[in-house]
Amino acid sequence: MSKSEFVRLQGFIESQLGIKTPVNKLTMLETRLNKRLNALGMSNFGDYLKFSFSNCHEGEKELQILIDLVSTHKTDFFRDPSHFDFLYDRVLPDFFRRKNSASLNMWSAACSTGEEAYTMAMIAAKYFRLHDIPLYRCQIMATDISIPSLQKARAAIYPSEAVTPIDKNLSSRFLLKSKKGEAVYRIVPELRQRVYLSLFNLITGDYRKIQPMDVIFCRNVLIYFNKENKDAVIEKLLSVLKPKGYLFIGPSEGMLPKGLPIKNVSSTVYQYDP
Ligand SMILES: C[S@@+](CC[C@H](N)C(=O)[O-])C[C@H]1O[C@@H](n2cnc3c(N)ncnc32)[C@H](O)[C@@H]1O
Fold first, then answer.
1. Were 121 and a residue from 23, 191, 217, 236 both cysteine, which residue would form a disulfide, CB within 3.0 to 4.6 Å?
2. Cα first-last separation, the chain
3. pLDDT of residue 16
4. Sites in the chain below the pLDDT cut of 70
5. 45-52 vs 57-70: helix axis angle to the nearest 10?
6. What was the pLDDT predicted at 100?
7. What would the pLDDT profile of 10-69 be if each residue is shown by its tens digit?
8. Sheet containing 175-177: which strands, arranged edge to edge?
9. CATH H superfamily, domain 81-272
10. Please, are residues 124 and 138 in contact by the beta-carbon 8 Å criterion?
11. d(CA 93, CA 127)
12. Catalytic site includes residue 98
């Protein structure tokens, strides 16, 4: 890859994903994109970039694949379990104390393949059943920048290794084992119906289209953004969080900007207090 080709990709990745790609990542980028060149029968990066940035439908699709290849999608059910304990023990009781008859709106921003959103749905379903609240009063928006990840989230089918963090009580209620004898499980329709998946770029997306949220999980994605984008995304997330709403971020996301109208209520959990 020539220097100018690398700089062009660097600019695109930073504008779309908010990620800086230092020169020492050049080989990694080449290795990941070489697979695409092979798949498309192309012999050099110049042709690949010309095709990808040609403004045609196929080029647009290729840019989506490129975005997917350069981002990290690692996720798990019940990742950082203390967050889900806090959701169950503090956030849901607090919400229903304040808003007895309202619906609960939650957002898994950067949901990857859906495990985070379905974990939120399991916790809500457990709480709602115990308190006799109908589950249709819970909506979970789950968004990501990666179309292949969203497709997997929509299918909601996971291998047996992926579902091991789900305890027996919850897995017997919310997972369906494959009838074909394969070691895969599908999330039950009752939960799938509560999760609304869509494409949303946290850096360039239009937050005016997002309905006000009671709870936002934006975990393990801010870490990839440069400081400017990270601060801007936090401000935009707060703009769609209802007063007293909760923001969960990942444990390695670093410090949030000073002076924001938020209270740190648990480890990497913040309550919006404008
Ligand atoms: C490491 S995963 C985190 C998944 C989940 N939140 C968790 O904590 O397990 C990061 C996800 O962020 C998505 N992502 C990266 N940049 C994004 C952006 N600018 N807007 C929306 N999603 C983005 C990636 O596609 C990826 O699926």
1. 191
2. 49
3. 87
4. none
5. 120
6. 75
7. 999 988 888 878 888 888 889 989 999 999 999 999 999 999 999 899 999 999 999 999
8. 157-159, 184-187, 175-177
9. Vaccinia Virus protein VP39 (3.40.50.150)
10. yes
11. 9
12. no
